[in-house]
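Let's study a protein:

___
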Amino acid sequence: MNKPSTFVILTLVLFCVLVSRAGDTNMQNLVQGNTAFALDMYHQVCAREGNIFFSPYSISTAFAMTYAGARNTTAEQMAETLHFSLNQCQLHPAFHELQAHFNKIQESRPFRLNIANALWVQKDYALLQEFKDLNQKYYGANLFNLNFKGDPEGSRIKINDWVEDKTVGKIKDLLPAGVIKTLTKLVLTNTIYFKAEWENTFNIDNTEEQDFWISGEDKIKVRMMTQKANFGYWENETLQVLEMPYVQRDLSMIVCLPRKTDGLPGLESKLTAETLKEWTSNLERQHVKVFFPKFTTTQNLNLKEILLALGMIDAFTDAADFSGMEPKKELHITDALHKAFIDVDEIGTEAAAATAVVVGITSIMPPKVVPEFRADHPFLFLIRDNRTGSILFMGRLTQPGK
């Protein structure tokens, strides 16, 4: 047999490179779209008072699993709302690639980043095999058969128990009583659990009670952690941005702190994908004296009302077309629920979130002196993967302890 020509060898190498780059480009497009959706979500929720915390990655994943069964106008509205710019053939492999990246981090790093997906199906309901296979292949979604029709409450408890187990007990009762009905045919769930130590842990002996301004005039006492170390830092006349990496620097918490104690609403009004990129791309490692509060918060979100406001209409009505799940076009989303938890202390961060989609039948340069980053008033924060830029968790703290 003749040896392959040089031309053939070069062609094969080029083909492999092009395929690899195409995969990377799709994942980049996915992350950009997920970021845009995360910010849309944040702007919908930030009108409410108090702390905010959610996992945009969890929400995007659960709805991507659902989107796999959407067709026609329903699919178009979902894609526009969720900022899915890739077609169905590209989107799900990109999600798979992104989750594989997180799985690889989990396997090789001294922290926990666990992601789990599942399909819960009425035991006698015939979902299309293509839909089930796609979710298993690209999302690793295990399939469980439940008797929603005969035992909706027992089914709800089983799903909640699974979520609680996957989030190490941090997310309990994701599905409240009454959400699962006799006409429920499918529930899609995603969970994410993260626990990691800071690269630079805080000395517990330096933590002490200090003031935290919950408004321009009112303050409370909080447990404030303190340290001086190297962090990513950037500032301008209205804003300070701090990057606190976790061990191994794969993931970081990014904190955006307005200069004014009552400046968070103004900061939120400027928050876009472009401004966030500007704030984070200018970060430089330098010595910073950091004051940061210990805090724990939990958030429950009804995603249905948020997604309706963002333009995902048909999926929640009789006009829904989920014929990629079943051919009769009899399904629509009845409920979409999200719950998230975060605990920040001297050692690191523990965070968890879960999303359920219930489907049923109708009925400037840094200063030369050491800068001080004093987070003693409301701020915005996010936890991101540093290689892909994917935002795993996002929120704001307006009052520690609430």
Summary: The first helix runs from residue 6 to 45. Confidence is low (pLDDT under 50) at residues 1-21.
